[in-house]
C-alpha cells in the first residue's frame, strides 16, 4: 500500500513536470517565495533518493542530500529520477531497519540518531511529498494555470477520505 501510494504521487509529479513549460520549470515564482517549480521537485525527489541510498548503508540522513541543481533545471532528468525511484520501489517491497540521523540545530555536530525503518521513512516521504505538492499547487493555480493538476494533487489521503465521509453524512 505504501509503495503504490508513493508511486502514485511520483506519477502525479511526473505528469505536472511533463506539462510544465521548460522556461517555467526553473523560473523563480513569487508564490514559492522566489523558489522555482524545479527546486520543489528536486527537494521532494532528493528525500526519496536519500531513502534509496539508505538501502545499502542502512542510514538515512535527509540533511546530506546532494542539492543537485540539474534535477531542478532539467525536466528530462527530473522525470528520469522519478522513474528510477519507482523502479526502486518495485524492487524493494520488504521493510528493513534503518538508523535515522538528523540535526535540528543550526550548529554542526548535533545530530540526533534514532531507530527507524524503510516503511516508516517511506511514509514520511509520502507526507513530505504531499506538502510540497500543495505548495506547487498554489503556484500552478496562481501563475502556471495552463498545467492540469490530477484530482487530489497535494491533498493528503486522510483529507480526501474525511471530505468524502462528510459529504455522505
What's the helix and strand layout?
Elements: H1 2-19, H2 22-25, H3 37-57, E1 59-60, H4 69-73, H5 75-91, E2 97-103, E3 111-117, H6 118-142, H7 157-167
Parallel strand pairs: 1-2
Antiparallel strand pairs: 2-3
Helix pairs in contact: 1-5, 1-6, 3-5, 3-6
Report a brief summary of the structure.
Helices cover 60% and strands 9% of the residues. With 169 residues, the chain is mainly α.
Characterize the structure shown:
This protein has 169 residues and is mostly helical. The protein has one domain (2-167): Four Helix Bundle (Hemerythrin (Met), subunit A), CATH 1.20.120. The protein has seven helices and three strands. The chain has a three-stranded mixed beta sheet with strand order 1-2-3. The protein is globular and about 45 Å long. The model has no long low-confidence stretch (mean pLDDT 93).
The CATH architecture assignment turns out to be Up-down Bundle
Low-confidence stretches are none
Give me the side-by-side strand order of the main sheet.
1-2-3
How far apart, in Å, are the first and last alpha carbons? 27 Å
Number of separate helices: 7
Look at the structure and name the CATH superfamily: dinb family like domain
Helix content: 55-70%
Q: How many beta strands in the DSSP annotation?
A: 3
Form type:
globular
**What is the average per-residue confidence, as pLDDT, rounded to a whole number?**
93
Q: What is the CATH C level class, in words?
A: Mainly Alpha
* Helix/strand order, N-terminal first: HHHEHHEEHH
Main beta sheet, described?
3 strands, mixed
Q: Using only CA atoms, what is the Rg? A: 17 Å
Amino acid at each position: 500500500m505504501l509503495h503504490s501510494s508513493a508511486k502514485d504521487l511520483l506519477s502525479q509529479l511526473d505528469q505536472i513536470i511533463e506539462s510544465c513549460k521548460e522556461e517555467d520549470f526553473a523560473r523563480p515564482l513569487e508564490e514559492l517565495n522566489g523558489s522555482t517549480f524545479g527546486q520543489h521537485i528536486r527537494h521532494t525527489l532528493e528525500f526519496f533518493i536519500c531513502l534509496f541510498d539508505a538501502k545499502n548503508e542502512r542510514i538515512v540522513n535527509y540533511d546530506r542530500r546532494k542539492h543537485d541543481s540539474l534535477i531542478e533545471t532539467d525536466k528530462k532528468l527530473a522525470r528520469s529520477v522519478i522513474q528510477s525511484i519507482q523502479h526502486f520501489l518495485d524492487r524493494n517491497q520488504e521493510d528493513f531497519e534503518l538508523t535515522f540521523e538528523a540535526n535540528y540545530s543550526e550548529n554542526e555536530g548535533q545530530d540526533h540518531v534514532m531507530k527507524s525503518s524503510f516503511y516508516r521513512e517511506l511514509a514520511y516521504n509520502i507526507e513530505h511529498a504531499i506538502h510540497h505538492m500543495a505548495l506547487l499547487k498554489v503556484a500552478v493555480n496562481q501563475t502556471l494555470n495552463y498545467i492540469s493538476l490530477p484530482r487530489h494533487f497535494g491533498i493528503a489521503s486522510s483529507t480526501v477520505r474525511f471530505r468524502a465521509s462528510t459529504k455522505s453524512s
